[in-house]
Specification:
The two termini are 17 Å apart. Helix 1 packs antiparallel against helix 5, helix 1 crosses helix 11 (246-259) and helix 14 runs antiparallel to helix 15. The protein has one domain (56-168, 189-243, 266-352). The chain is mainly α. It has 15 helices and no strands. 75% of the residues lie in helices and 0% in strands.
């Protein structure tokens, strides 16, 4: 049962993030320390250095031989359900688009498992909750954040090659403009163009350390746990000196981004509400479907649903900012998501106590 001490632990875990956020905000809005161009450079530093090492660090310290593969299967099914729904929406609805499908996928599926999830799950379900939420973080980093990187890089390369938008309606020039592509200069897509585009995308992904940081960490975890030896201290220290700055510098970069917007709620009230619904309703609902499909029950079922309702991943904002896609929506989701997550998650915890 959650007590005030447990609530305090969650607050202790999240308040430092807001301190970093406010320092970043103040450095631009109040003190004029950084210019917009320098803010972009800071975000790139986070994207290519601190976050990959942070990802490697926690992946290298798990025990892959004790992972719950039914739980992982349920998580995969839930993500695939969301991908199918968003693909149909983009294809069949006049309001659907490729760009908004990417952002909606981030909102529905990518969670801040480590910072908020670990202390909260420990309070709710003990070590079982911690183990499962860490496992979901590793799988998220290996598969789903890599998938997000792929579709973002595909979109970016697509626009640079002046191909028509995958979800664009030729009758609606705004759908081309949304991706920065000139309804008069685009070239028709054919097999040769597609192969050329995919080559560009894979080369860029191969040069992005976020694509393989978690995979290298997981390989190390397999080797270390199979033959029972630890990471050399010189290697561990080299990783930790950067990885410990991961979430702090990410929040600092988000604060800079907020300071450069005209409004505190950068994306507006309507999109904020939609983002919260996708985060705290659609994501857990899809996870419930996946969990039932593989036969999860008891505490594992409850943990699966609650971890899907954790607040928005900070990494998703960093990627959105780097690739220029709805960073205002993702930043708002991170900030407000962490504010409202505690009462929402406690409500889920209370309701799911009646589920067997």
């Amino acid at each position: 049962m959650i007590g005030w001490e447990d609530v305090y632990k969650v607050v202790v875990a999240t308040v430092p993030l807001y301190v970093a956020l406010m320092l970043g905000y103040g450095s631009v809005r109040w003190w004029q320390v950084f210019t917009p161009e320098q803010g972009g450079a800071i975000n790139r530093f986070v994207c290519y250095f601190t976050l990959p090492l942070f990802t490697f660090d926690f992946a290298a310290n798990i025990d892959p031989f004790k992972m719950n593969y039914l739980f992982i299967g349920a998580d995969a099914i839930s993500k695939l359900v969301i991908v199918v729904v968003l693909a149909l929406w983009a294809k069949c609805s006049s309001k659907g688009s490729y760009c908004w499908s990417i952002t909606s996928f981030s909102l529905c599926t990518l969670t801040n498992s480590l910072v908020v999830g670990v202390p909260l799950m420990k309070a709710m379900y003990g070590q079982l909750g911690v183990d499962l939420v860490v496992q979901s973080s590793v799988i998220q980093a290996i598969i789903w954040l890599t998938f997000l990187l792929f579709v973002l890089e595909f979109r970016h390369s697509f626009s640079l090659r002046n191909f028509p938008s995958p979800a664009a309606d030729d009758k609606d020039p705004s759908s081309h403009l949304e991706q920065g592509i000139s309804g008069s200069t685009h070239h028709p897509m054919n097999l040769s163009n597609f192969c050329s585009l995919m080559k560009i995308v894979w080369i860029k992904l191969a040069m992005n350390p976020n694509s393989y940081a978690c995979i290298i960490g997981l390989v190390w975890a397999f080797i270390a746990n199979r033959w029972h030896f630890g990471m050399p201290s010189i290697m561990e220290g080299s990783v930790l000196i950067m990885s410990k700055a991961g979430t702090g510098t990410a929040m600092f970069s988000m604060g800079i981004f907020m300071a450069l917007q005209e409004k505190l709620v950068a994306c507006g009230t309507g999109l904020t509400v939609i983002g919260m619904i996708l985060k705290f309703v659609a994501g857990p609902a899809a996870m419930a479907i996946g969990s039932i499909a593989v036969g999860l029950h008891g505490d594992v079922l409850r943990i699966a649903i609650i971890q899907a309702a954790l607040p928005q991943s900070i990494t998703s904002f960093i990627f959105a900012k780097e690739y220029g896609l709805h960073a205002d929506v993702l930043s708002t989701a991170v900030i407000f998501g962490m504010l409202v997550s505690l009462p929402v998650l406690v409500a889920y915890y209370a309701i799911l106590e009646f589920v067997h």
